[in-house]
Amino acid sequence: MMKNVPGSLLLLLVINVTLDAEKIGLRPPGKPVLTMCRSPEKETFTCWWEPGSDGGLPTTYALYYTKENSDAVFECPDYHTAGKNSCFFNKNDTSLWVNYNITVVATNTLGRTFSDPMDIDVVYIVKPNPPEELNVTVMEDKSWPFLRASWESPDKADTRSGWITLIYELRVKLEDDGEWEMHLAGQQKVFNIFSLRSGGTYQVQVRCKPDHGFWSEWSSTSYIKVPDYFHREKSMWILVTVFAAFIFLIAAWLIHMNGHSLKHCILPPVPGPKIKGFDKKLLKYGNSEEILTALVVPGFPPTTSSTCDDLLVEYLEVYIPEDQEMILEESKAERDLLKSEALRSDNDSGRGSCDSHTLLMEKCAQVKETDIGENPVMKEKQRHQQEWNESPLAYAHKDLLSPDMSGGRVKTWPSVFSPLPQQSAATLSQTNPLVMAKQHCHSDSLFPLGSTSSYFNHTAHSTEEAHRHSEFYTTNNHPQKLQARSDLNISNIGYSETPTSLQLPPMQPTSYVEVQEVNRDNMVLLQPAVSKGCCGDGRIDNREDYSKVKGMSSDKVLLLQRDVVSHEMDLSKEQKINGALEADSSSPQVSTVSPAQNKMSPTVDGYVDTAVMFTLPTH
Amino acid sequence: VGKKQISLETFLFLLFLTLLYLEISMRVGTAPICIYGQAGCPSSSLADFFDRVIQQSSRMHGISSSLHSESQNFLPRRNFIGKRKCHTYSIPTPDDKENAQRLGREQMIEVILRLLEAWSDPLSQFHLSMSPDQDQDFNQYGSNKALEISDMLHQLREGMKILGALGNSVTFLSPESFVPVSDFSFYKRGELNSVDHHNLLFCLNRDANKVKNYLRVLKCTTFPGTDC
């Protein structure tokens, strides 16, 4: 037991010491870490490690290595050349294409700790030194300067013998600009940099790398200042400016020359209602004759067929059986049919008097010989016909038939504007195509009597004043042809049929009907024209107000429809007229009611205008 | 029509001539190739040849590197390398600059040739051993690359033979003398698994690097100054 005491005491001592050591914090060294091994020239290499904690005690480090396929362990030959915590392998100790297994051991009094081993092959850990002698100069190339950078391989790397092959990389930056511009230079040691900013200062750096290895650090920066060469640039800019100014001047001149048409192109004028060539002031102050003459505007009806499409009214076809005279009244269904029929039968359709006012004249002159007699009429027409039969009133609407029209279909007067056969018109005067045109331009409506009257408005003879009269003839029990006669004697017109078959009512060859007024229901009341310019109570209105024939009342009143109600109706007059009409039932009179007067002086008798204003053609 | 025919025939004839010329020119002709130092010969042609050979070896090394790194992905988890022994370890090769420079031109060529020769058989074995059942992707990839490397190896060998013939001492070495036959057994042990593949590729990578390096040294000792 006594002998055991020293042993146990020793044990206690040791335990005490260790326990004390631990109390103080002394420990065996921490594990060192091999950070990296590098070779600058593929002939030597260095390994560095990171020491762990030293455990509070002085710790020594040792590096041991083994080579491939050999179990011999060697220790690091040189701990100092490469600095602290490093091991330098010189040429004699360096073998290429051989795996080294390297381990670092940390030792202190309390123990030793091994690091993790590291396997390296020197060939793959080459990191050269940065290139040396970087030299940047400015080279002149026709006053567009560029930089030429040249350098040398790092001193230690032996590229001359081919032992190591380096590739280089350059980077350039404008001073204070921020972004480096990288350029790979390959194996060459010279590099040109173009596109320099005049007067700028550039920084240049270069680095290198073996074909399998690591990039070196960047070399020291080389600064270079580019001389000012902006005078060259300036001359170019001057040229560009002059050229641009020249082009600008030309453009301005062009715009100035074509300003008007450009203006029209960009800002097309808002079409306003106006009568071409007509001085509106005339309406205020001129007398009726002046207005009338002024209203004779040449160029109306418009000769361009494009506008005519808008102007074209659907045809109203009138089927008049042999015995009857038809009132042409438009119904929707009929209209389409008529139109189609009209189109079919009239090869001139679509061209209307808009094409030329001569045509219009022709049509008017043709007084519609409505060769209607032959064909049975559609139902409504039948009805109308019956009405007509009873009524002495003439129904205005007739169309101008082309003489070669067959089937006895009467076209509504819009079709007046369809081209007429050439024969007739010659004798017609050229005046007043306008009125008719006006009516024609009203789309989609049957032009009422007033409208028909309008196209009878034209003064056939230049000698006549611009009075327009319409003549309506209705003969009930005859193979009737609805005729609207202009002032011209029908016999003057070269129709074979018309004059002979015309059965004139037992009234004077020329009697006029004038539109008296349009009542509230848009009925146009006609009355026999009393005299020129007279309008009784009615304000015979302007030819600008055309009304569409809506129907015919039983009282021999032509019902017109007004599209635009711009005037007040005078009911009283209507009644009066109605009464008058009734009184004159036997007389082939057509009562018309003129719409309320507008400012236009009612010099013209009996024309019922639709509310649409037309530009009157000028003579 | 006659004219057309004539021109067609002429064209075909010319084409034939061109192909013939190309074929002839592609062969290694007997025209004297200048070695640096001989008077009256432009040395650029040989330097260009050297450059081409070096480029080819560089390419080969690149492929073997990628193969090797790819095969690393297919290694089993336990990163076990073990004692690796390349079958070419018996070929003495200079392992640093001084030894390489001390070697001299002919010996260097011989070393390179031996290395190249030593790899033709194992490569074909490697190619054959890429069985489809194991490591599908790598097998496909590796198989193609192995074929490529084989071709390059063959070309390099031919090139080296030319270079060797340039030297006055033509060492005619039999293939067997290059590598001990027993070393082939290293690779002939039945099916090669992925570890074997990895090892083989590792050795191939290293030897390709050696060849490239030696060729560069050879060129710079033969033609100093041009890119050296």
Automatic annotation (TrEMBL), chain A:
InterPro entries: FN3_dom, FN3_sf, Growth/epo_recpt_lig-bind, Ig-like_fold
Entry membrane topology: Single-pass type I membrane protein
Keywords of this entry: Disulfide bond, Glycoprotein, Membrane, Metal-binding, Receptor, Repeat, Signal, Transmembrane, Transmembrane helix, Zinc
Similarity field: Belongs to the type I cytokine receptor family. Type 1 subfamily.
Compartment(s) of residence: Membrane
Bias kind Polar residues: ranges: 584-601
GO MF terms held by the record: cytokine receptor activity; metal ion binding
Segments traversing the membrane: 236-255
Region called Disordered, residue ranges: 579-601
Annotated Fibronectin type-III domain residues: 28-129, 130-229
Signal sequence interval, chain numbering: 1-21
Main location: membrane
GO cellular component: external side of plasma membrane
Protein name per its UniProtKB record: Prolactin receptor
PANTHER family: CYTOKINE RECEPTOR, INTERLEUKIN 5 RECEPTOR SUBUNIT ALPHA
Provenance organism: Cynoglossus semilaevis
TrEMBL record, chain B:
Molecular function per GO: hormone activity
Subcellular location: Secreted
Pfam family name, one: Hormone_1
A biological process from GO: positive regulation of receptor signaling pathway via JAK-STAT
Keywords for this protein: Disulfide bond, Hormone, Secreted, Signal
SUPFAM superfamilies attached to this UniProt entry: 4-helical cytokines
Leader sequence residues: 1-30
GO terms under cellular component: extracellular space
PROSITE patterns: SOMATOTROPIN_1, SOMATOTROPIN_2
Superkingdom: Eukaryota
Family membership: Belongs to the somatotropin/prolactin family.
Protein name (database record): Prolactin 2
Native species: Cynoglossus semilaevis
